[in-house]
């Protein structure tokens, strides 16, 4: 995390156990096509179960198309394809039993802004880093500043060549 981000990170003043008692909103996990979905979903599922709240899996979808979306590994054509993508990730990486899982696709050009909006009412927002470097990516850094709930940033781990596409 850069030094510029550090002053904006909120540190709870009360022990973590008090947060468990007050948790009411879902744990929101922001997934993408970067190969980090398994770690994100498992972390989110563990936290939702611990807090006794639902798990909400969110994918931020935009209308971008190559060559304008170099940051995506694939471009999803429409919201239906984006929902199928989320269903595939949930099906591949979350086992039963577990917390109730809500799935959502948010259509937005600004992922950080959309995730900040989604954070309203959430118990926790789980986002991932986009690379295996020490620096927090632009979206994660912006979410740390703008989110209205606690945020967990899950480190990126390079995928094995033998892992499935999603």
Quickly describe the structure:
Residues 26-155 form the UspA domain. This protein has five helices and five strands; from the N terminus they run H-E-H-E-H-E-H-E-H-E.
Structure explained in plain terms:
33% of the residues lie in helices and 17% in strands. The chain is α/β, with parallel strands linked by helices and 166 residues long. It has a single domain, classed as HUPs (Rossmann fold, 3-Layer(aba) Sandwich). A 5-stranded parallel beta sheet has the order 3-2-1-4-5, sandwiched between helices. Helix 2 (37-51) links the parallel strand 1 and strand 2. Helix 2 (37-51) crosses helix 3 (79-93) and helix 4 (111-119) packs parallel to helix 5. The chain is globular and about 35 Å long. InterPro entries: Rossmann-like_a/b/a_fold (IPR014729), UspA (IPR006016). Pfam families: Usp (PF00582). Residues 26-155 form the UspA domain. This is Universal stress protein family protein.
